[in-house]
Specification:
Structural class: alpha/beta
CATH class of the largest domain: Alpha Beta
Helix content: 40-55%
Order of helices and strands: HEHEHEHEHEHEHEHEHH
Number of domains: 2
Largest sheet: 4 strands, parallel
Number of helices: 10
Shape: globular
CATH architecture of the largest domain: 3-Layer(aba) Sandwich
Low-confidence stretches: none
CATH topology of the largest domain: Rossmann fold
Distance between the termini: 32 Å
Radius of gyration: 18 Å
CATH superfamily of the largest domain: NadA-like
Strand order of the largest sheet: 2-1-3-4
């Protein structure tokens, strides 16, 4: 898919989310997180950017960088958890007196209606500015914020659950680290090619 997009848009740069498949990352120019996506795209000299796989995050980046032409890769790619949210969630939370904060992977109308747009890490940093929050993202962040800010109120959607994230538990992680079971083995050449885009993202933090 990345190769086909490059052929269709010669000269465009490819930016992929850091959790993308290793083989896909190996075809990218640089990777990003939801927190640094804008910074990463801004750093590129190319005016046309193939951005994937989340089209809502691509749209968010485009709204912040109008001088760039952002082409989603693939068109309509999305996180099924963030796609759950709608304007009704924003309106309902506001009526109850909650400040709304949404992830940039939420649909455009949700981002426009929310009080704040922030990555998961950004939500932790922003939590101090209001006393009650509606968190428009995966519900697990609510538990973390309640522990960090016990004097504040956090509301979540109970069905906003990432099934893939929930497959990983602390016990399973401990077991894997102790025993070495479930090691991921990839071809050295592929890892070398995928390392470049990751290192280019990391280098931005050091400039």
């Amino acid at each position: 898919m990345v190769r086909d997009a490059r052929s269709a848009h010669p000269g465009a740069a490819v930016v992929l989310y850091v959790n993308s498949d290793t083989a896909a990352k190996a075809e990218a120019d640089i990777v990003c997180t939801s927190a640094n996506a804008v910074e990463v795209v801004r750093s590129l000299k190319e005016k046309t950017i193939l951005f994937g796989p989340d089209s809502n995050l691509a749209d968010y980046v485009a709204s912040r960088l109008p001088e760039k032409k952002i082409i989603p890769l693939p068109e309509g790619g999305h996180c099924y958890v963030h796609a759950l949210f709608s304007c009704d969630d924003v309106i309902s939370a506001a009526e109850k007196g909650f400040t709304t904060i949404c992830h940039p992977e939420c649909p455009r109308e949700v981002r426009k209606g929310a009080d704040v747009v922030a990555s998961t890490g950004g939500m932790v940093k922003m939590a101090d500015i209001a006393d009650s929050w509606m968190l428009l993202t995966e519900k697990g962040i609510g538990y973390r914020l309640e522990k960090l800010f016990p004097d504040k109120k956090f509301m979540v959607r109970e069905d906003a659950v990432c099934k893939d994230m929930k497959k990983i538990t602390l016990d399973m992680l401990e077991h894997s680290l102790i025993t070495g079971e479930y090691a991921v083995t990839l071809p050295a050449r592929l890892m070398k090619r995928a390392r470049g885009p990751i290192e280019r993202m990391m280098a931005l933090r050091q400039e």
